[in-house]
């Protein structure tokens, strides 16, 4: 009896990998073995960088908030502490957006943060 190779499924699996590697240079998009290695490695990079993107955005937001707070005469950590004491629950993404695009509203938040130190 001839050996069964499950040809349709094997071909589909290989074609799926080669389609994922379609933009790669050289043998990485032609040969199954190197394409498989490249696709596997790109998956590792993608997983890692989904985590790193969150870190990088948080760093960017903190830098923007810090610049806005210092422009209004306050450091970042004192500003965040003042917001906590004033029970203002805005996240860093929104605060950074305000610092860049709406400086009047951000200045009002800085004043509220400063006032929370006087009350305490």
Protein described:
This protein is mainly α. The chain has five helices and no strands. The protein has one domain (10-119): Orthogonal Bundle (c-terminal domain of poly(a) binding protein), CATH 1.10.1900. The chain has helices spanning 7-20, 32-71, 76-85, 92-101, 103-119. It is rod-shaped. It starts with 6 loop residues before the first helix and ends with a helix.
Number of structural domains: 1
Relative strand content: under 5%
CATH class: Mainly Alpha
Helix content: over 70%
How many strand elements? 0
How far apart are the first and last residues' alpha carbons, in Å?
87 Å
Helix-strand topology string: HHHHH
Query: What count of helical segments does DSSP give?
Result: 5
Just name the CATH architecture: Orthogonal Bundle
Largest sheet geometry: none
CATH topology: c-terminal domain of poly(a) binding protein
Using only C-alpha atoms, the radius of gyration works out to 26 Å
Mean pLDDT: 95
The named CATH superfamily:
Ribosomal protein L20, C-terminal domain
Low-confidence runs: none
Helix and strand arrangement:
Blueprint: H1 7-20, H2 32-71, H3 76-85, H4 92-101, H5 103-119
Helix pairs in contact: 1-2, 2-4, 3-5, 4-5
